Amino acid sequence: MTGLLFDLLAQAAQMALTLALAPALVGFTRKVKARLLRRRGAPILQPWYDLIRLLRKETVLAEDASWLYRAAPYIVFATTWVAASLVPTFATGLMFNWIADLIALAALLGAGRFFLALAGMDVGTSFGGIGASREMMFGSLAEPATIMIVFVVSLIAGSTQLSEVAAYMASDFSLRVSVLFALIGLVIVAIAENGRIPVDNPATHLELTMVHEAMILEYSGRHLAVMELAAALKLLLYVSLIACVFFPFGLAPPDAGLGAMGVGVLAYMGKLAAGGFLLALFEASTAKMRIFRVPDFLGAALMLGLLGTFLVFITRSL
Amino acid sequence: MAHLSLDVAQLLAGGLVLVSFMLLYQDRLSGLINIFALHALVLALSVAWQAYVQDAPHLYVTAGIALIFKALVIPFSLRAIIKRLRIHRTVEIVGGVGWTMLFGMFLMALSLVVMLPATTTADPFAREDLAFALAIVLLGLLMMVTRRNAVSQIIGFMSLENGLILAAAGADGMPLVVEISVALSVLIAFIVVGVFLFRIRERFDTVDLFELDRVREERRR
Hints:
- The complex is a heterodimer of chains A (318) and B (221).
- With 318 residues, chain A is mainly alpha-helical.
- Chain A is 72% helix and 0% strand.
- Chain A is built from 11 helices and no strands.
- In chain A, helix 1 (2-36) crosses helix 9.
- The mean pLDDT of chain A is 88.
- Chain B is globular, with a radius of gyration of 18 Å.
- Chain B is mainly alpha-helical.
- Chain B is 83% helix and 0% strand.
- Chain B is built from 8 helices and no strands.
- Chain B has helices at residues 2-25, 29-54, 57-84, 97-118, 124-146, 150-170, 176-204, 210-220.
- Chains A and B meet through helix 7 and helix 11 of A and helix 1, helix 4 and helix 5 of B.
C-alpha cells in the first residue's frame, strides 16, 4: 500500500516538476541570451510573473470566436502537459511510464498542433491563417523526421517505450553513428517545433515571418497564459526528451528510493540548464532564415534520420 | 575492442556519406570547395583508421596522399581557378534541392540493398566500406548529373573518386603502386580539366555547360 502511494507521489512530483520548471527554463534561456548579448536581462522567473499577471487580467474574446477558440488553449495545454510529464525526467519506471511511448508522444503533440492551428484560423484574421498554414507546413516536414528518429532509437533499444530506451542507452554505452545522426536530427526538429531562432523568432510580434505568435495573436488574459505555458512545456519536453534518450545519466532506476530520485532531480536540473545554455548560445550566434529555407533545414533532419536508420540496418547485418 | 573499431570505421564512412550529401546540398561555389576539402579530410581519416585496424602501413601513404593532394592542393587550386574565372561569388541555382536529396536517399538505399547481400562472405569492415563507397560513387554521379556549372561537376567527379579510394582501402590488399598511379592520374585529370575550363570560358564566356548544348542545337539546325 505504501509502495503504491509512493509511486503515485513520484508520478505527481514529476508532473509538478515539469510544470514548475518549464517557464523557468524559458526564463533561463532568455537570461543567458541577454548576457551573451551583453545585456542584463529579465530575472529567470520573469515568465512566471508574466503568467501570473496574465491570469489576473480580463479575457477579451473576438465576437465571432466559436467554442473551439475557447477550448483550444486548454486542449493544447493538456496534451502538451501530459506529453511532457510522460517523458522520464528524473526517474525511469514511474507509474505511468508504460504509456510513455515515443509514437504516443508524437501523436499527443500532433493533436496539440492540430488544435493550435484550428484556433489560429478560427477568428478569421489574416495573421492567424498565415501562422496556421506555416505551422502545418513545418509539421508536415518535422513529423516524418521525428518518426525516422524514433525508428533509429527504437531499433537500437528494441522498444519504443521511453523508460526502456533510456535504461538501454544508460546500460549499453558505445559509440554509434546512427545515434549521433538521430541526436542532431532531433535537435533540428526541436528547434523548428519550438519556433526558436533560425526558424521563427519567439521574441518578436507583428513580423511577417512569425509562426507561433501569429496563431496566438488574438488570445488574451488566461487563454494567453495557458497557451504560453503550453509553449514553455513543449520546449521543456524536447529538452528532456533529448536528455533522457541520449544522455540518460543520473536517472533513477525503477523501484529507487528517495536518495536516487534526489540525485535524479539534480542531474535533470543540470541537464536542463545545459540544454538552455546551448540553445541560447546557438540562438545568439545564428540569424533567422527565410521561411522558404526552412524546408531545407527540416529536410536535413529527415535525411539524418534516414541515414541513421540505414546505418542501424548495416550494423545489424554485419 | 573489435566492436569499437568497427564503430569508428562506420562513423568515418558514414560521415563521408553525410559529407557527400552536404555537397549535393551546397549551392555556393566557395562553400562547395570547402566541403570538398572536408570530404577529402574525412576520407584521409577513414583510410588511416583502416590502416591502423588492418595493420597495413602502406595505407597510411594513401591517407597522406588523400590529405595532401585532395584536402590541400586541389581545393587550393580550385579556389584560385574560380577566382581567376571571377565566379567565386556565384550561387548556383540547383533545381529542386529536395528532389535531389530524395533521389540521393534512394541511391543510398539501393547501394545498401545491392552491396550487403552481394558481399556476405567478406569481413565486416570490407562489407560496410563497400556499401558506403558505392553510395558515395552514386552520389558523385548524381551531383555531376544535376549540376550545370563545370566547376561543380569537377567536384562531383573528385568526390566519386574519393568513394573509389574508400572501397579500395576497405578491400584488403591493394598494392601501393596502383594507389600512387591512381592518385597521379587523378591529379593529371584535374590539370587537364583546369585547362579545359579556361578554354570553355574563352570560347563561350561562361562555364555553364548548358551553353554548350545551346550552341550545338544551333549548329544542328
